[in-house]
Every structure is written in C-alpha cells, then in structure tokens.
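Fig. S4 source data, part A: sequence.
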Amino acid sequence: MAAMPPPELRPEGGAAGTSMSGAPSAAGAPAGSDAGSATPASIPVSASAPAPFAAAGTPSSSLAVPIDPTGRSRPIGAVLLEAGLLTQDQVERVLEHAAQKRMPFGEAAVALGLLSRAQLEQALGYQFDYPVVVGNTAVALSREVIVAFDAHDPAIDDLREIRNEIQLRWLNGSSGRRAIAILSPQSGDGRSFVASNLAVTFAQGGARTLLIDADMRGGRLHELFGAGNAGGLAAFLSGRVALPSIHAAPGIRNLALIASGGAAPNAGDLLARPAFQALLEHCERQFDVVIVDTPAASEGPDAKVTAAQCGGAVVVVRQDHTPLDTVSQLVKGLKSATVTVVGTVLLDH
C-alpha cells in the first residue's frame, strides 16, 4: 500500500452524499521541541457533561466517555418522555390508543399526531444502540453533524464506509496506533465536516471515540457540539492548565471532545512539543479511536506537524474547489514526514 497512491474514500455530494467509490483518484496521486511533559494521569470530564458515565480504559484511569447502560432497556415511552418529546398526559393517551388499536406505542404516537416519523426513528435508534440525538439533547448540536440526527441520510452510508476503511487500513494495522489526523490543503474543503461526522459514526459503531480539535487558529468543533472552549488543547500545551478539559458530546454515547482552547500565535510550535505526543499516547490507551481535526495545510505547518504526531492521516479535498497541485504537494509532504496517508475523501458540495 505504501508504494501505491492511497485509495479514495469518496462521499460525493458532501452533506447530501450519494455514492462511494473505491477507485483511486487524482487527489490521491503521489504527491524541535522546547518543553516536555510527563504522560497525563487523567483528564477530567467537564462538569457540564451529562450523567451517567462509565470509566473507559484501565481501572486506574479517570478518563470517561458518556454511556447509558440502562437507557435502551426502558420502554420507548420513557425515552420519549425524558427527551421532552411527549408529556406524561400524552404518554397515557398514546398507551390507551395503542391498546385499543393493538399497535406499537411509537406508531400510536405518530397516528395521534403527537410525534413525527423522524422523531420516532430517532428514539428507536437510541433504543437499538444506534445513538442519535432526540428532543432537548439536539439543541446543542449543529445540523452539520448530520449523522447525529438522521440514520437515513444518503451521505451516512458513505461516512460509514469511510469509517470502515479507516478501521481496516489503519486502526487494525501493524502500526498499533489509534490516532488519525484529518487534513485538507485549504479552508473550505470540508475537513471539520468529515472529522466531526466520522467521530460520530465511530461512536455509533460502539467505539470509544475522542475527537480533538487541533486547529488552534480557528477551531470550531466546540461550536458544532455545543461545548465550551476554555481549558482546551491550546491552554494545555501552553502550560496554562495541567490537563485539558474533555466534554461529553450531548446525546451521543461513547463520544467525547477536547476543544481547541482558542487561538494560539505559536500553534505549530505547541503541537511539536512532547506534551502533545504524550497526550495522544495517553488518549490512545483509553479510547478505541482518536480523531484529530487540523487547520488547513495552507495556513502553516500545524497540519503536517499534527499528522506526524498521529502517524496516519486522511486528506479531504473538495471537487472543483481544491487545486490538484496543492493536493499533490500535501501528500508528498506527508510522506516525506513518514506519515501514512490512509486515503483521500472527495467532497462535492
């Protein structure tokens, strides 16, 4: 694989994706530290994160990701009630109607006009261990994170395919690494869209997933997931906090986020510090997959430095937007830094 161009992982249509192609594309053609840090002992979960939580990784770790071990066993009415989609009076009405018509609770709620078909599908997805946001938990999430809202969007199958390819080509490989960087040659290519949605698909597949925003120039993952940005990566790498804050993604089990922590004038230098490598190694021991979003490669060395720390990268390009020569230069630069380019994602949006 190292001697060949990385195969393309292609969701055409971006947020409204249509198809997946495994064929190589032109986009996939060959193309000093100043501070140290001991491996962090633990990373505290944000106080605003929803409960309950279960410890991830070894028993000695206090790093945690949100799960709900009992939620799926509850009746669908209880799930809808807690999500704020039905009131207690409405639940009783639905129960009576369901008994009279000999139909499932959810179907009865839809028949009465108390619940939309989409809301019912979201609640059923929650029960069947396919975490999608329902009711009040959806408020904090951006609609850009499409896989968190709709199990049937055409682009979601493409994103799952990309997840599976990353699993096969990188996470199950001989490298032993669990971190992978998401890069793009320039801004507007769709890098954060891919990173955030990939993280949700991994979590939906049952993997303990951590999403790190390493874009300390204009990171916005905290906005997509309704999380705070204080105490994030920039604050940790600059020594202003002992450990970065980790936020549970609202309504998405098994997914957590470390925000960028704001803009840093020396972002490239901070990412090259041993503290970042130590953080990645620590997180790789506690999570099944660590997805790292980066700034556009055209904005400085940050993306390449981050990819080198992760060891593997996926390159996101945008059809009719990203110049082919910039893609080739980026891929060549990554290979020269001994980064494994796992594949490329071509977005059409």
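Fig. S4 source data, part B ends here. The chain is about 35% helix and 15% strand.
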